[in-house]
User: Fold this.
Amino acid sequence: MKHSIGFIGGGRVTKILLQGFANKNVKFEKVVVTETNQEVLASLKKQFPEIESADAKNAASQDIVFIALHPPMVMDTLELIKNNVKAEATVISLAPKINLLKLSLKLAHVENLARLIPNATSYINKGFNPMTFSSGFDPSQKQVVLDLLKTLGTTFEVSEEKLESYAIMSAMLPTYFWFQWRELAGIGEKIGLSAEESNKSIYETIIASLDLMYKTDLTPAQVIDLIPVK
Assistant:
């Protein structure tokens, strides 16, 4: 890809996106990451040796800039880097809560502003990633961005007011279940199954249960009624 990208923040979501791109052999002219936690940065560079570490102003000067920060840090950081972001750049915020209007207050000279709610499953290119674009976003560049992010999985455009709902219903959804599945696996081993048998049982049953709930003509109540224990 004939673009350089910069990540303001090198934490979990940056790792997820970089791994998703790597899985699909997506190449960039340059990947610049700024991260103040040196342990996090070292871990990221070990996993992705090609990245360059630099300060936030350098990362902000790339063609596509990802704002990968927690919401409380976003506005102050944008104030710091706003003069380094090119007018023709694409800026994609990965943070919830900070809307496009607030982003544009700091980056008034940038028309190509977008927000993406990333999903951890993008790590294996099976993400479910809603995004929204500013009204002035260049249509041709929008397609470039969508084509790039679709390598991570299902990426689709929605109205901005729905992004926070998707953050709950998609981005946070795995955390509601992962701990339960891990606990079930431990129980399985305690009652006589091997780790492999326990994991296979959980995986196969979860997939079939999802299909039963969402890919049949049964109502949710009818599905639930198939098992007497509640």
